[in-house]
Write a structure and sequence with these properties.
This protein is an all-alpha fold. The protein has helices at 2-27, 31-38, 54-61, 63-86, 91-106, 119-129, 131-148, 151-169, 173-189, 191-199. It has one domain (2-199).
Length: 209
């Protein structure tokens, strides 16, 4: 019986390790780079802001390609966290899976560890972990976008709201720590945008009437 108990926990530990690695490897798949290559478009890292994300792809690839990029980046966060939910992993493993998927997008092993800013993947990770939290983030983004008409600022405000909501809700410390790290990295990735926002030079969203 003791041996069976040990083997079961070793198996669970091995599954957790593989899940964390899977989350990182999946997160490393760049939707923007792969889609633009398949469609014969310019590499997003060499155009516009140089960011392999939906916003940059939108500038030269069009709405359809940008939408597919967005869906792909969100899915990278959804899939591993959903699997973690299905396996009923501990909060510590869940936090590691969430962070691994996000870090994969920022530092993709397939693309010389040079990835995107991580907002879409973070949305996928956090929404799959807690759909109510996802609704809070989307609502915060929309409200901020309507008031400021600045996409980057809306993303920063929305992601910053995540750990606040988690503290209020009483989420596990491991999940909260992972989320704080995600938010900090998103702010770091947006440092150029933040400088432009402070100077009043950041581009604004144009709402069609």
């Amino acid at each position: 019986m003791v041996q069976a108990f040990i083997m079961t926990h070793e198996h669970l530990d091995l599954v957790s390790v593989f899940l964390i690695i899977f989350a990182y490897l999946l997160g490393s798949v760049s939707s923007a780079i792969i889609l633009t290559r398949l469609l014969g478009l310019q590499d997003p890292r060499s155009v516009g802001s140089g960011n392999p994300g939906a916003t940059n792809v939108l500038r030269y690839g069009g709405k359809k390609v940008a939408a597919l990029t967005l869906v792909g980046d969100i899915a990278k966060g959804v899939i591993p966290v959903l699997i973690a939910h299905m396996l009923s992993v501990s909060s510590l493993v869940m936090a590691a899976v969430m962070l691994a998927a996000f870090l994969g997008h920022l530092f993709p092993v397939y693309f010389n560890f040079k990835g995107g800013k991580g907002v879409a993947t973070a949305l996928g990770v956090l929404t799959t972990y807690d759909p109510v939290l996802g609704l809070v983030l989307i609502g915060t983004w929309l409200l901020t976008a309507l008031i400021t008409r600045i996409s980057s600022l809306s993303a920063l405000v929305a992601t910053a709201a995540a750990p606040v909501f988690m503290v209020w809700q009483g989420d596990p410390q491991a999940i909260l720590l992972a989320t704080v790290l995600i938010v900090a990295l998103i702010f770091w990735r947006h440092k150029t945008n933040i400088k432009r926002i402070l100077k009043g030079e950041e581009s604004r969203i144009k709402f069609k009437s």
